[in-house]
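Problem statement: downstream parser choked on a complex file, so we are re-checking the raw output for the zinc ion run. The parser issue turned out to be on our end (a line-ending mismatch), but while we're here, posting the original submission so the record is complete.
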Amino acid sequence: MNDAPAFPAAAVPELSGEVLALHRSLLTLDTHIDIPWPEGPDPFEDGKRKVDLPKMVRGGLGAGCFAAYVPQVKRSEESETAAFARAIDMLSAIRGMGRTHRGVAARVAVTADAIEAAKRDGVLAIVPAVENGFAIGRDVTRLNALRAAGARYMTLTHNGHNVLADSAIPRGDLGDPESEHGGLSPLGRRTIDQMNRLGMVVDVAHVSRAAMLQAAQVSRTPVVSTHSCVRALCDHPRNMDDAQLDALRDVGGVIQITAVAGFLRAGGKPETVTLNDFADHVDYAVRRIGIAHVGISSDFDGGGYFSGWNDAGESANVTAALLARGYGKSELALLWGGNFLRVLRRAEELAE
Ligand SMILES: [Zn+2]
């Protein structure tokens, strides 16, 4: 076990054997997890991070998208080359988690079928991804290398505009204007085209509202926000408003509600935000655009956690909270990964 619990026990629901059995029967996939870089603890050791492989086993979290996160810095040929090199190195580290070690079995699973097979085999599924299109700089052919290194989705921006698109959070310290491209740049559109060809899912988390709406239209395969919440409940630029939610539904995409306290409640802190807040965002999105377009993510080790879902070991609490809201087994299966797998499959079908 970990250190003493960070939150009062009352914040965490009592889990019956029945709830735990149901949770463990589901293919549970968290669409956004960060890794330590350049160095960190052994992912096969139960340590201080929000996610390591023993916590995934303990929490019944079967699959995770692990992001090669590239921070936005001032754009130059050198910084772009360095960003690409970093993404390739991080993807290599993520692929390195796919092995059996210290009694934990994990494997890299890049396709929907492979993720399902890992679940059947009782093996954790590691799905590599890239966060921030700055990783390709202005060279679209670099996408091929990222894809070859396992990246299954790429988030078009992080905080701060890049050459592909505007960010939801411009970086004044990097000289960002409110909008640089009016959404996507022409290069951003070419990038999406190439991602479609390669079967890489277009992640619209972090991009500006205009860029998100344009990406939904431009992409031939459904776009996903791998870690965002609902703006009607918490007015934060990283969250999706109703028109954005509707656009996701119209293209068959998914919003993966995430565990970042400040996205769940205005000014929210991890100590005061609860599973109820998280379930409120899921409920809102489901009522607005339907159960087929909503999913679950943590953004663990990238800022996500709150009272009741403090780390991957507590993932069954999310199932318990949603059961209490009336979601049944088949609905939980969609929320916990079924919808995201549908998008992966669609991208695989349409890839060249
Ligand atoms: Zn992020």
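For whoever reads this later: The longest strand covers residues 124-131.
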